[in-house]
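[scheduler] slot 2 assigned
[scheduler] job type: sequence-to-structure, two independent chains
[scheduler] chain ordering preserved from manifest
[runner] begin chain α
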Amino acid sequence: GGSLACSSLLRSLVVAHVFDHLCLTTSTSAAYMGTRAILPLLALLEVGLAFGGLSGDQGWHAVPLFRKPAVSTGQLELVEEGLNVLRAQTEPFAIVSAVGPTRTGKSSILGRAFFRGEHENIFEVGSGVTSHTGGVWIASQPVEVKVADGSTLRVLFIDTEGFSGVGGITSKTYEANLFGLVYLLSSVVIFNTMFPVDASTVASLNAHASHALSMLQALTDSGQLVQKAKPRLVWSIQSFNIYNLHNSGMAATDLLAALRNASRASGAGIAVLGGEAASSSTWLVERLFEQQELVTVRRPHASDEVVANLAKYNSTILSADYLHDADQVRAAAMHDLKAVHRCKEAGTVLTLSECTPQPLVGTDFVAQVSLWLKHGYILDRSDLELDTADEAETLNRLRERNRKWFDEQCATLNEELRTKFYWYREESADNAKLRDEAVAAVDKMMKGFHGAALSRLVESGVFWKFPGKGAMLVEAQADQAMQRCKETLDGTRRHMEGWTASHRATKATPAQELLKKLEAEAPKPSGGLSYKLVAEDSSCFSNAGGAGDIHRLHLGNGMTLEACAEAVSKKCECGRGFEHDKGNDGYCGCGMAGTPNTDCTESDDDFSYGSARYIMFNPACLNQQSEARKRALEQANAAAGGEDGGGALAAAVVKDYDAPKKRRQVCFDVYD
């Protein structure tokens, strides 16, 4: 691209060549259709020529410049990737930013106005009803444009998270700081809204302007004067029905004047600009921006589906009116564009006539931005307004949510402690040390309840309404929850220490010995049932070689221990072992007679918290249990195919059932 005259000549030559070619090679009708088809391409050519020269490397993408904090205090956080883009600028550069309410097309208008073509979706465009852009994003490299004096200026573009978004954690304070920083960063601010607009829209813009004013005041109070010229404002109104304007006999400038007059007076903070108090007709935006221009942008396409999914469609299928209006946004933003700078003159945000600009390179600008972020933090007072009508209800809801959350956290720690004791159940010096470490670890996590609960509070809207009372409530609840949780964890530790000891004792006392004692102590027929506790936190679970829990019989729920024992005594398919879990709705089950699980020892390392395993001497079922063992032996012999050694197999099976089982040693790795 060269001078404007050269660009116009090139445009004329290309258009003439295209039309001549169509007329020479096609019929009149075909030429007309071909002309209609080529018009979108000519529109793209028009954009390219209008830009003059673009940087040679066109690999643009968006990178984050500011992110939301993990805890929504409203203080934005700098991102090195975006700062590196700024640091890379060794020549004068300008910044054009888009701000405004969520889901109004900020990302789209930036792409279609300034990157039309291959990179028109440089800023990701959402397709739903929730906010898509989060934080502040900057183009990875600048666009070079010709300015009024014929020189080349590098321009960086910034896209921002929409105000009042759905689906994200934001606050008025976060939005206030976002707008204030973008105001300070930018040479031009594009404020993007949707049609229709009225006095409430103007009031919203004025409110955002007041945030910028508050940030300027905060910087002034901290000794950080903002010595720069006021940026320019381009107000882009999307999906505008141009006929409403025509029917009123108005132009865009007339509409802007009408909206300005509809704005309420605001004199707050004007002193920081060195001006007098606002009059009844003052529009605060006029005091903060050098110029204001309103641009109407018509609907991109007649189809709702296309409009909702603009990122899927390139500009060639969009409305010519929309593309024309996007060009108008670009022209308004590029008009009289100034590089980022520092004024030689003392004062805060001066007019262009008052400022002798000294352009800043990227490293100097980054240092300036860091100071603005550090000293310019502001708080939107509306986040702190008290509503006494719903204060009690709001705090009660917070109390209930906190109680539930504390209980969930303690239950998680309790399960963690129980699991570690099970992993390190065997007696050894190393395991004893690991159990002690597990106790210390959960105790440390429990003591973090205070900090975690306060962080959750700041993320909630309650903090912004009732910061003092909310914090006091959380502190008190955290103290109570820690006390309750400590008692629970101490109880679990004592329980698991007892379990590990009883587990070792159980392994040292085979079921056969217990059964002999039961048989010796068996009561008279009228004296009731004879059963003994074998192990706590143990069940009749059956591995059965990985085939599932097939060697356990389920006898029902809602039973007392006595009722469970009675049910086992009457079901001779049960072996000698059974389980009862009072905490699990009174569950009752037994090992299956004639299987390795007859004494509920097939999976003797099983840990089932709250369940208790018993063994029963039941003379009434001895014959049936013997028959079950006999059938098991026959099945084992049949599986051996009747070959020599079958008798030895049968003897081995009998020995396995009637003699103490050989313990299996299981080795495994634990990854925490």
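[runner] end chain α
[runner] begin chain β
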Amino acid sequence: MLNSITNMGKKTKKKAAPPPPPLTSGQRVRYQGAEGFVSKINGDAYEIALDGGRVVQATRNDLEPIHRRLSTKQPSNKLSSTRSSTELDYRGTNFEDFPDEALPLIEVSDDKEVLKVNEEAVELLRRIDCAICPISIVGLYRTGKSSLLNFLHGGKAGFRTGHSVSRCTRGVWIYGRPTRATLGDGTQVAVVLLDTEGVGGLEADRRYDERIFALATLLSATLVYNSLGSIDENAIGQLSFVAQLSRHVRFAPKEDNDVDEGDEAEEDARRLGAVMPAFTWVLRDFALELADEQGDAITADEYLDRSLRPQRGFEAAVLERNRVRHVLGAFFPKRQCRTLVRPVHDEAKLQQVDSLSPEELRPEFRRNLEELKDALFAPEHVKPKCAPGSNAPVSGSAFVDLAQQFVEAINNGGVPVVSSAWDHVSQTECTHASKEALQLYSEVSLDLPLDEVELHALLEKAENDALSAFDARALGDARPEHRKDLKTQLAKKTKDWRSRNDAASQDACRKSLDQLYMDVVFESLQNLGKEEAGATDAAMRLEDAWSELRKRYAKDPRARGPARDRALASCLSMKWPEAAHELARRLEQRCDEAVRKEHDKLVGARAELAELEGSAAARARMLEDAQAALVSTQLEKARHEARCQAATRNLEEVQRRSDRDKGRWDEERKRLEVELERCRAKLSVATEKVNNQERAKEDSMRALPSPSNTAGKGGCACVVA
């Protein structure tokens, strides 16, 4: 098969270009010069939502995927003149204060026995609050790994490179300023680049190289293997350290039981393969044309798959290389291959390739480099590092804990156990996530009191935010139990908020009701005490005052919360009887005052009556005197006296009745006085008549002759007799 990879100068039979790969929903595309994204897929047809709002239907051949910023101008030969969206943009606002340089992540002691996680890198990584996508590059020493990383992050000389036969990278290094990428589902991912110490060389220590490779593999989401030339048997043989990966990494602790060690190792390797990173083989200085045995063109991925097929033979070298192929296929089911031609033809410039301007690089190299960037950094290809057996992405803090666990296991002379390390990281991250979630919930500020619905909505949002914050960081098998405990603690805090809201509601409602009681009900009681209103009218007006209090209470913005109705009911049950009692007291007081006034009036009337009675007695005595003086008068005088006595009796009767009704007595008294005056007038007339009669009699008596005169004349006296 490898013999079919011929020199580029050899003529080969071309086959038709393969159909373009299908697009995915949400992918950015270009259609007839306008950009948009795939909103819906209907078989072979795509619905495209163009920028600006227009929606069109198009086929796959009409669409051009956008993995980087494209210009309407012709492509420039400058590597960094136009920054692409897949190029690592280290000038983002989120990471602008991160160092724009490489720094060690895993440091190595001089005797290569002790590894250490650099504290400066730890501090930087813990500041990454989103998912992290570590991309590590491994390979033989002096194959240009660091130079390739510098090309990938924009041509800047971030990683140190060398031109001698000695290694220039020790341990594992990290580029200090990550970039934040947004995936199709909205997930924010920080992409970080890791450079590892080359394998082999003059200072080669096979065990040390295998441990560094295992460590880089465990820490990576994407593992880039850098090699020179094509994939031949020698290149496969150089990957023998990959075959030793299972000796330096285990998925689960070794169990002391009767299980066959071979079966246990095979099961552990199978489970280990499920957590391995994506594998990208980069072929540097590639000068061959990709074609199969028939001369038909093939892709780089197909070239890799064909190269990993077992070769025939039973020689030890063939069997060892086939074992390497098997391990590569088993451990890295997600794999791809990309090729890069030599950056420049001039050997002298090749030694200084990091300092060359983009115009000095070959166009083919720049094109291959852009394809590699798309394969590694395009949003649809970026895969954050996740916990085993789940899609929970790892944050910067969890990545640091994981690295520290692996380094500690290696320093203790053991083998890093993936499941144990992840269990520890899971416990640590879940604990931190719970604390952060509780802290986030505790930072909620509420203006109590609040209505029950509003409070429930705010607390539910706060709880959901806290759980979302927990879910964003928590991972692993410890997550369900910690999440359950977190919900229990959140429920307690929610209950506490409700208790505080109820107390605040009771206090606010009580103050509102007290104020309204004084302004409405008590004021009404004061007015009722001053006005002349009957008991029924006063009760109705008090009822109106309570109705007005309820209306104002319903509109009072201070009176809100769960205790609103309870406070009103409590106020009515306590203060309504008090108000009614106060009203009764005021009405009774007013009635007593009225009775007192009436009593004073009655006393005055009685005094006046006594005075009238004394006057009537005097008049009676005068009448009796008049009657005694007129005893000698005729029957008319007696008749008038009888009438006077009757009048007197009537007057006495009137006096007795005046105790019951003084008004009637006054009228009767006036009538009797009139009758008395009439009687007096008649008496006066009768007296005058009697007097006249007496005077007439006296006059007649004086007119008669005296007896002496009658005897002197003789016979006259006899005649008269």
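[runner] end chain β
[qc] chain β: The longest strand covers residues 34-42.
[scheduler] slot 2 released
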